[in-house]
Specification:
alpha+beta; four-stranded antiparallel sheet; 9 strands; 26% strand
């Protein structure tokens, strides 16, 4: 395994060479899927100026920083990273325009970090279903929270249901405030 460091963007690149032996009975599809000479994952190490650094199970890996033109009233962040297909990306996100009922995982991580939401000792304040979302996947996080709360109550995990309920309220209140401001101040 080769490990290289890139201090310019605080990235660590891991490369592992794999060898695959084929069985004559293996289908050509599974041969193509297993014919990988290198696996590459990029992990961004969090620095002091980053709001968030991480990824998820889809292969998405990214970091989020405030943009130079960000202000208290108009917070703007830049998200940079590698998508689930191994392609580099950069997105500019206006925090005030995020709608948790129709958001990407990148937008929700930006909102989570900006609002400094208590993760209760875990890695995230978001529902478990968000773990495999890709770069351009959008979903209703408010609905996801409601479903997880329902499931936690059903199995008697009222402690976890309460934590998810607290986070649901924070994200719902943010969306309601944004809708109120948009309807009253953009006319």
């Amino acid at each position: 395994m080769n490990i290289s460091f890139n201090t310019g963007n605080y990235a660590r690149v891991y490369r592992a060479k794999t060898s695959t032996q084929y069985n004559k009975n293996t289908s050509s599809l599974s041969r193509r899927e297993n014919n990988i000479s290198k696996n590459q994952h990029k992990v961004y190490l969090k620095s002091d100026d980053m709001l968030y650094s991480g990824g998820n199970g889809s292969g998405l890996s990214f970091y989020i920083k405030y943009a130079d033109n960000s202000s208290r009233d108009n917070p703007i962040v830049i998200a940079k990273g590698i998508d689930e297909n191994g392609k580099e990306f950069e997105q500019t996100i206006n925090i005030n325009e995020i709608k948790p009922s129709n958001a990407s995982i990148i937008e929700m991580r930006a909102l989570e970090a900006h609002l400094n939401i208590d993760k209760r000792g875990g890695l995230t304040s978001l529902p478990k279903g968000a773990g495999f979302l890709g770069l351009n996947d959008r979903c209703d996080f408010i609905g996801m929270f409601k479903n997880v709360i329902h499931d936690m109550k059903k199995i008697g995990r009222y402690d976890l249901a309460r934590i998810y309920l607290i986070n649901l309220r924070i994200y719902s209140d943010f969306e309601k405030k944004a809708e109120y401001l948009e309807s009253n101040y953009t006319k």
